[in-house]
Amino acid sequence: MEQNDISASELAEQFELVVSPGKRNIAERALAAIFFTCMLFIAYGIGSAFFEFGATAGVCIYAAKSLKPLLFCFAGGISFSVTKTVLIDTDKDKLISRYCIGPFSRDWISIVPQLEYIAVFYNPKDDYEVN
Fold first, then answer.
1. Contact 35, 28 (CB under 8 A)
2. CA distances (Å), 85 to each of 65, 70, 77, in order?
3. Largest CB tally within 10 Å, which of 3, 47, 81, 89?
4. pLDDT at residue 2 tops 50
5. What is the Cβ-side half-sphere exposure of residue 119, based on CA atoms within 13 angstroms?
6. pLDDT of residue 119
7. How confident is the model at residue 130 (pLDDT cuts 50, 70, 90)?
């Protein structure tokens, strides 16, 4: 993953069209922090059990039972913190979908489809959609 340190003005200079939902509100960021903290707490419990008691049958059962809440907390943290920005450069026929979680981002580059018009609208789930 790479550090996302490009400002909005630099993005506007590089790409013709930028669709960004902006930052998440404080309640969603707080929920994401709670989920990630719980995930780290569960992972610490599993690791300390293995360190203290070794790979006994009881510890392996504890780790297996703790895996579902750990994955639930990870998915909850991701769902409350991820944002998607769409960058379109029609000169180079590039469409970049940038998924950001905090300071980390991942770009998915594809070719711009044939566009006659672009409609950007705000749906009831507080997301921007492109039609």
1. no
2. 36, 28, 19
3. 81
4. no
5. 4
6. 73
7. low
